[in-house]
From TrEMBL:
Taxonomic source organism: Rothia terrae
Family to which this protein belongs: Belongs to the short-chain dehydrogenases/reductases (SDR) family.
ATP-binding recorded as keyword: no
The protein's name: Beta-ketoacyl-ACP reductase
Single GO molecular function: oxidoreductase activity
This protein's UniProt keywords: Oxidoreductase
CDD domains: BKR_SDR_c
Lineage of the species this protein comes from: Bacteria, Bacillati, Actinomycetota, Actinomycetes, Micrococcales
Domain Ketoreductase: 5-178
SUPFAM superfamilies on file: NAD(P)-binding Rossmann-fold domains
Length: 236
């Protein structure tokens, strides 16, 4: 095994974020998570932080750096949805999703790359969605925020690629989480029928790809969009 790295997963207290944090912990890394509300999981170094607040992000990084040193692997996973059809979508519905999902990613990436530049190495992993490139009914705000992460990763790659820092996008499809568990059976059936693999993914299947893209094996991959969607979006 390679030596333990300091890993930060934003929004790592549930769903895909929790699975990603668990995957890195099981691989022997020092895993830190940020969470916004509720009780944090005890198994990780958890820091309360809000990605829409720069000061709170800075404070979280200081706490992590004091404990483990600079963040070497950043997984920008924190996100929200406010789905509604375009004609009903308020400007606040749009801007609040952009502020969390896109500007939130910018805030944590900007802060993380300070330490990565000093270390002369780093991995930036942005969690997007199949909807980012495929589109989704009632998701103009969410889809826009997730599509923009591709441009972000590719610009970071051009800026920091020579510093041994990679930036990639993981685009999960339908994942079996608390969010999808509550969908009506009929809706779930429609979704499954549209997926070539004919099933939802387990959160661990996304987490394993994230862990791999952060590994030394993937050191020459940057600016890529890696779909984990059972063939739904075909990678675009």
């Amino acid at each position: 095994m390679t030596s333990p790295k300091t890993v930060l997963v934003t929004g790592g207290n549930r769903g895909i974020g929790y699975a990603i944090a668990t995957e890195f912990k099981n691989a022997g890394h020092n895993v830190c998570i940020t969470y916004r509300s509720g009780e944090p999981p005890a198994e990780f170094f958890s820091v309360k932080a809000d990605v829409t607040d720069t000061a709170s992000i800075d404070a979280a990084f200081k706490e992590i750096e004091a404990e483990f040193g600079p963040v070497e692997v950043l997984v920008a996973n924190a996100g929200i949805t406010k789905d509604t059809l375009l004609m009903r979508m308020s400007e606040e519905d749009f801007t609040s999703v952009i502020d969390t999902n896109l500007t939130g990613a910018f805030r944590v990436v900007k802060r993380a790359t300070k330490g990565m530049l000093k270390l002369k190495r780093g991995r930036v992993i942005l969690i997007s969605s199949v909807v980012g490139l495929y589109g989704g009914m009632g998701q103009v705000n969410y889809s826009s925020s997730k599509a923009a992460l591709v441009g972000m990763a590719r610009s970071i790659t051009r800026e920091l690629g020579s510093r041994n820092i990679t930036a990639n996008v993981i685009a999960p499809g339908f994942i079996q989480t608390e969010m999808t568990d509550v969908l009506p059976q009929e809706t779930k059936k429609q979704y499954v029928n549209s997926i070539p693999a004919k099933r939802f993914a387990q959160p661990e299947e996304v987490a394993q790809v994230v862990r791999w893209i952060a590994s030394d094996e993937a050191s020459y991959i940057s600016g890529a969009v890696i779909p984990v969607d059972g063939g739904l979006g075909m990678g675009h």
